Amino acid sequence: MSLQKRPQLTSVTELSERGPSRRSWEDFDHSQTLILGCSGLTCIVYDRETYRPHILQSCRENITTQRLLLAGIAGESDLFISTHFVFVYRDNIYVGSEVAGICLADVIDCTIPLREAHVSSILKRVVQALIEATEKGIQYSHVKASNVFLSHHCNDLEPDLLIQLANFGPRLEPQEFEESRPNPDCQDVGHLAYHIITRLSKIPKIQGALPIPEEKMLKLGSSGYAININTGFSETFLDFLETCMSSGNLRRLIGHDFLMTYNTQHLIPLMFNAERSALRPCLLGVL
Fold first, then answer.
1. pLDDT tens sequence across 237-256
2. Residues 1, 180: contact at Cβ < 8 Å?
3. Residues 131 and 219: beta-carbon distance below 8 Å
4. CB 229 within 8 A of CB 218
5. Are the C-beta atoms of residues 205 and 224 closer than 8 Å to each other?
6. SS3 81
7. Strands across the sheet with 53-60, in order?
8. How far is CA 94 from CA 91, 103, 137, 274, in A?
9. Please, what is the Cα angle at 42 between 193 and 286, to 5 degrees?
10. pLDDT (tens digit per residue) in 107-149
C-alpha cells in the first residue's frame, strides 16, 4: 500500500494556526496549575475565563518535524488525544490537549487481571491509530501502556469507552516511517499485549537454545522471543503475538482474528474499578 501525501507541516507557527483555538500563556489562571509527574513538563491548566481544563506540555524549541506532525494529526483524529492549541512562551513550545481519562498503565496495575477480550478491545484501536500515523509518514515509536488512555464516551446513549494514544510527551519521539523496512511498532504491540494480560512489561527474550521441553516454551517466529504456553493463552492470542513479533506489518495485525472480538464495553467495569482504586487512599484518609 502506498502512503498518503504527508501533511506539509514544518513550523510551530503553522501548527498553531491550524489548531481549533488560539491560546497564549496569559489565557490561563496559573495559580490553579497542577504539575503532573516528576519531569515538571506536564501540567493541568485552566482557562482564565471559563476554567475549562487542558493538559499543557512543554519542550524546547528544537522540536522535531515528526513531533509536530503527530500533534497536527491528533488535532484531526479521535484515535489520538486531541491537540487543542500550540504556542511559544519564553523559548519553550507548549502543546495544549484535551484532558483524557485514565492511563492504561493504571488500569493494568489497579484492577482485576485483564483477559484476552480486554486486550483485543484495546489493541484494535491502538493498531488503527498506528496505521493512521504511518499513512502520514510517522512511526509512533513508543507504544507503551503509559501512552494509551481510556475515557468515558457516550455512543447512542449507551455507556462506552474511547481508547486513544498520546499525542505529545517528553518521552514520545516519533520517527519518520520507512515503508520498505519492518515497522518496530509491531513488536511494541506484541509487548503491550503481553503486558496487559500478564502485568510483565515485555515478552522475555531467549538467549541461545530454548529451555528444556518440560517448560513448554513457544518461540515466537524468528524474533528471539518466547513465552511459556502453560499460562492458558488461547491459540488465537499466541498466533497474534507471533504475528506481532515477526511480521513488521501493522495491516497484518489489524486483520488478525484476535482483533475481531473488539468490544470496548468489555472495558467499562475495568475503567470504573481503576478510578475507584485511585480514589481509595484519599477516601480511607478521610474516614
1. 999 999 999 888 999 999 99
2. no
3. no
4. yes
5. yes
6. coil
7. 34-36, 42-46, 53-60, 92-97, 83-89
8. 10, 21, 23, 30
9. 85
10. 888 777 889 999 999 999 999 999 999 999 999 998 999 999 9
